[in-house]
Amino acid sequence: MDANEAVVEKQDAEEGNSVPKEVSCLKRLKSIIFKEKEVELMTTTEKVMELLQPVRYKPSSVEEISRETKFTKSEVKFLYRSFKQECPNGIIDEDRFKEVYENIFPLGDASKYAHLVFHSIDREDTGGITFGDFMEFLSVISKGSTEEKILWSFHFYDADRDGCINKEQMLKVSESICSLMSHNSEIAQEMPHVDRVFTMMDSDGDGVVTKEDFFRYCITTNTVRQSLDFLP
């Protein structure tokens, strides 16, 4: 039992194991992400990933996780148990993450979009997502402010993490969404739309969209602000 698990178990002993109604919406997420599958022998790659896991996220208490992620203590405990049950080594790799999106969007090609989401969460490029990474991601998309969601969206587009977005990156995201929704025939039709939006964002015409450009466009465009409720 690791430090996180010990903290959760201690909290349970003190508060009981009841799960409030707010957690019911998270059960659906659990059923999608943590589907039952056969336990496989740990490969060498998985062992290496497990060695990477402890250095990135070591909260000292359920209260600390709750405070940092905006989830209640009961929600944190529920998600932690689910995560540890299906990911004993504390890591979700990209293949497993893609399976999640394939289950949600079975008619389309989810691999490109899932890769972009995974890359935006795995900011240290370790090849795996820890419970801490996962909680930060869920916190932003489900409980984050408009500003936090816009910032997350910027990093989602800024795949090379150079602090700005070019038109190729914007088109890549648009293409991944079309593939996700099984609208491959519409990819060519997206180029004029991408051009138009990019031009509106790139206020100084230097060929790149900065964080400030992106934020200004998103915060002043009603349709964009509304769409933030449906991230990612």
SSE diagram, text form:
Layout: H1 3-15, H2 24-33, H3 44-52, H4 62-69, H5 73-86, E1 92-93, H6 94-104, H7 111-121, E2 128-129, H8 131-143, H9 146-157, E3 164-165, H10 167-180, H11 187-201, E4 209-210, H12 211-220, H13 222-227
Antiparallel strand pairs: 1-2, 3-4
Largest sheet, described in full?
A: 2 strands, antiparallel
Report the order of strands and helices.
Answer: HHHHHEHHEHHEHHEHH
What's the arrangement of strands in the largest beta sheet?
Answer: 1-2
* Overall form: globular
Mean pLDDT: 77
State the low-pLDDT regions, or none: 13-25, 35-57
Which descriptors would you attach to this protein?
232 residues; mainly alpha; two-stranded antiparallel ribbon; 13 helices; 63% helix
Structure overview:
The protein is mostly helical. 63% of the residues lie in helices and 3% in strands. The chain contains 13 helices and four strands. α6 packs across α7 (111-121), α7 packs across α10 and α9 (146-157) crosses α12 (211-220). The longest helix is centred in the last third of the chain and has 15 residues, at 187-201. The radius of gyration is 19 Å and the shape is globular. The two termini are 33 Å apart.
